[in-house]
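User: structure tokens for this one?
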Amino acid sequence: MATSKPSKVDSVTFPMRPSKAERYQIEREKDAQFAKIPQDLITEYFDLEDEKKGIEVWAEKELDYIHKSKKEKLHGNSKEIETNYQKLKSISGLDGFALLHRLKRGGIK
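Assistant:
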């Protein structure tokens, strides 16, 4: 197959783009190579691509479920913490700052 002459700029050689006929011939050769692939192998490729998409959808649903569960559990936990904190304040008679300061130290008396 004949190729176009390369161009030369400042002693650097750049390959020329193949002519339309050469590009057509290249594509025909690639089509012939592709035709050698068994159809069941091509089908398997597309099946695997579909499976991949299914896995991605499944994983997104799982992540959404986990995120929602985490949010609900943290919300419930925050309510329990607030209730406990209010009980600690009422029993101790300490203001919020003094109580938190002592809790941060580990509740040591």
